[in-house]
# Entry
Amino acid sequence: MLDLQSTCRNFCFYLLPAFSLQAFSSAVEALSLANEVLGRDEYSWQIISDDGQPAASSCGLLVCADSSLFFERERTRRSISAPAVVVVGGRNAPSPHKQLDAWLRECRNRRGSLVGISSGTIVLARAGLAEGRRCAVH
# Structure
């Protein structure tokens, strides 16, 4: 039986440049709907961008960020655990980003969950975090 008290999770959505607004909103809406069905806030999320500034989606819509990559790396280093990180990409392969790769590896080393959506999966693979795992990018 699932212990609902243990499912309370915070998700850090890292938005890559030109991320898919549809993919991002679908993921957040699923968490929001879960909270509605449960009748309480079991799931929360925050938005991370590289510099903490609004992130531009592939359609040009801006999404405000709650934090920057630098701040989240520092928070992860000071914490005994790591957040669940969701890297949201878009249609194109993202450029290499050493600081993002390092943060994702730090999160994995602290047993944080990692999810790649759209080309976010490429980021996880490039950081060496998808080895031995099945994945698909549509």
